[in-house]
């Protein structure tokens, strides 16, 4: 019968094993902290790039990309729609000229129930 306070099946870890385990865990914590710091820096740079793009695009159709649809008025939505249609046509034209095969008709972007 085991003595009180002793755990059966658990071996005692010697000091060297403890030190090795602690050193491993400390290096793992350090590695994870560096990884988190790199991810935070990458996120900060991405946010700054978005802010810079938003600032550069003020007054252009591209600025609508940084807005929610519900924040745009009808005129802005139509302007954005026309720009998206132009880009879609340009992409379709480039793809069809590159493929040199039968071109497929471009897909139409859906309008609201009322056609403008």
Describe this structure in words.
The structure is a single chain. The chain is mostly helical. The protein has two helices and no strands. It has helices at 15-56, 74-99. The longest helix has 42 residues, at 15-56. It is elongated. The protein starts with 14 loop residues before the first helix and ends in a 17-residue tail after the last helix. The mean pLDDT is 80.
Please outline what is shown here.
This protein has 116 residues and is mainly α.
List strands and helices in order, with pairings.
Elements: H1 15-56, H2 74-99
Write out key terms for the chains shown.
single chain, 116 residues, mainly alpha, 59% helix, elongated
Oligomer: single chain
Mean pLDDT, nearest integer?
Answer: 80
- Strand percentage lies at under 5%
The backbone outline, from C-alpha atoms, is elongated
Find the structural class using helix and strand composition. mainly alpha
Distance between the termini: 88 Å
β-strand number: 0
Summed up, the helix count is 2
Largest pleated sheet: none
């Amino acid at each position: 019968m085991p003595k009180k306070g002793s755990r059966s099946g658990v071996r005692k870890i010697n000091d060297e094993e403890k030190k090795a385990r602690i050193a491993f865990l400390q290096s793992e914590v350090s590695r994870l902290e560096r990884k988190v710091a790199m991810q935070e820096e990458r996120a900060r740079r991405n946010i700054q790039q978005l802010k810079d793009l938003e600032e550069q695009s003020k007054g252009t159709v591209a600025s609508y990309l940084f807005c929610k649809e519900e924040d745009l008025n009808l005129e802005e939505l139509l302007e954005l729609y026309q720009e998206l249609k132009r880009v879609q046509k340009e992409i379709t034209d480039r793809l069809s000229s590159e493929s040199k095969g039968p071109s497929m008709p471009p897909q139409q972007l859906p309008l609201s129930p009322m056609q403008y």
